[in-house]
Design brief:
By secondary structure, the protein is α/β, with parallel strands linked by helices. The chain has six helices and 14 strands. The strands form two sheets. Strands 6-5-4-3-2-1-14 form a seven-stranded mixed beta sheet, with helices on one face. The chain has a seven-stranded mixed beta sheet with strand order 7-8-9-10-11-12-13, covered by helices on one side. Strand 11, helix 5 (about 170-180) and strand 12 (about 185-190) form a beta-alpha-beta unit. Helix 5 packs parallel to helix 6 (about 200-210). The protein binds nickel (II) ion and manganese (II) ion (MN). Nickel (II) ion binds near residues 50, 55 and 167.
Length: about 230
């Protein structure tokens, strides 16, 4: 059994495992780097890390079209329910849940979470997935925090880390994050979507691979890796 991860640019991932499709932070409409349209997005589950528009994105439309179950914090769950999304599963930071496809735990993230209409979106989160014996940590939007070391103690196969700077960790802090987490592999995200988060991922890859034991997977939007 393998886990296939496709990067749709920004923080949006499609995780496919044993026929189940998990779509994370589906910011597709209005995303200049998105390789698909929102109409083409397939999902059995959608996971939303926080309320910002570049993460909630097309969640409501895709959930209504596909019937996907949306996993988010309780505040975003309430907002989605009010938008008419029928299948929602609330979790919160520190809490994990065993789904048929595997487990996901919500982790801390240092960021904001207001929803697009100004509704309070609770605290932002990251995701720690346990799927087919693999551990995937998607940090989502966050600054560097020392407790990433605790997440790393789980033994992370793939860390998905923002490197864009300005709104999240930049290249220097995400390199420090790799040192704290010590994952086998890293996928940099949340860069080059807009001019203010422009970064050179090739330079970052060489720094990480020189200073840590992690391999860096550089994907173009729409490309995949398999664990
Ligand atoms: Ni954000
Ligand atoms: Mn963001």
């Amino acid at each position: 059994m393998s886990v296939k991860i496709t990067w749709y640019s920004h923080a949006c991932l499609l995780i496919e495992t044993d026929g189940t499709r998990l779509l994370v932070d589906p910011f597709i409409t209005g995303n200049p780097m998105a390789p698909i349209s929102a109409d083409q997005a397939a999902a059995d589950f959608i996971l939303v890390s926080h309320g910002h528009g570049d993460h909630v994105g097309d969640t409501v439309a895709i959930a209504k079209r596909t019937g996907a179950t949306v996993v988010s914090n309780f505040e975003i769950h309430n907002w989605l329910t009010a938008q008419g999304v029928e299948n929602c599963h609330p979790q919160h930071i520190g809490g994990g849940f065993d789904y048929a496809w595997g487990r996901v735990k919500l982790t801390i993230a240092h960021h904001g979470s207001a929803l697009p209409d100004g509704t309070y979106g609770g605290n932002p989160c990251g995701f720690l997935f346990y799927i087919q014996g693999k551990k995937i940590y998607h940090a989502c939007d966050t600054g560097l925090f020392y407790d990433m070391k605790l997440i790393g103690e789980e033994g992370i196969d793939l860390a998905v880390l923002p490197i864009g700077d300005n709104f999240t960790m930049g290249p220097d802090d995400s390199l420090r994050a790799v040192k704290l987490i010590q994952p086998k592999q890293v996928l940099p995200i949340h860069y080059n979507t807009f001019d203010i988060i422009k970064q050179d991922p090739v330079v970052w890859k060489s720094r990480v691979e020189k200073e840590t034991g992690a391999r860096v997977a550089l994907l173009k939007p729409g490309e995949s890796l398999t664990l």
